[in-house]
Amino acid sequence: MIDSHPRIQVRIVMEEGRRGDVYPSDVIESIRRIADLAHPSLTAAQLSDDPDALRTCDVLLTGWGAPVIDDHLLARAPRLRAILHAAGSVKNMVTEATWERDIAVVSAAAANAEPVAEITAAQIVLAARGVPASRRAYRDVRSLSAAKAARGATGQVVGLLALGEIGQRVAERLHGSSLTLLAHDPFADAAEAAKLGVELVSLEDLFERSDVTSLHAPLLPATTGMINRGLLERMPYGATLINTARGGLIDEEALVEVLRGRSDLTALLDVTVEEPPTADSALWTLENIELTPHVAGSMGTDRSAMGRLVASELARIAEGRPLQHRVTREAFNRLA
Asked: Looking at the annotation, which residues are catalytic?
């Protein structure tokens, strides 16, 4: 628990472009009721140019474009006790120095998980019904006979790679439907998975049995390129691969080669290794690969949910209550 302060001093540091979405006026007002909010809000570059900007700051409120919390920054923020990050992963901002100072770290990943789960579940249902394949066929034959490429969802098998925050939410949305749910997650509890109607299987079985496979694993050294040629070749006829997690999970060269040789397969990629892919990448030209520009996460007004989560956590600090979305050092090591 963090010691409360009579009147907490806070500052917002993040990119300008999405700041208004994350911290709209009503969220700013709720923050001001709890704490003294320094003006103006800064970008990471502006913070770097102002050595005294965090001198009296107790709690740093961040979002996309947050500064790296390293020794240099912390030396200029002697009172800093908490960082409340109104975005998903804190992997690229938190350093060893953060943990050594025992600074509390909060992530709004739970708020960001909701729109990701929502769009992923929708894609899964469409893929299970064969919509992407029928869309391609319709464009080619320009006849209603293309509907033969579609199918009913009943009995279709959906495989989830990882049952973390987002994977669980996707499973919850699909639980009780006519779909059969599988998952591979070495950290998942079989009994808890069963409550969601999910059968835990090996990674190979996941790809071999699933008509739709959706990726939700973090990008770590152990998971980089884990979706390789061997797994892709196991996918059954007409299967779909969905990635709304991290592009680096997939060996893209293998994906292109396998899908070039198997027009029955489909890949729906909201994330890629390079974003966007290079202009000459086959990811743009293969008809059975559909790209979207990283839109599965919070967009526009959805982003305010992350600001509200941060404001709620700030209120807990002010009241001396435990944080609900604190990132522990152990959990940090498993984050994307």
From this structure: 246, 275, 294
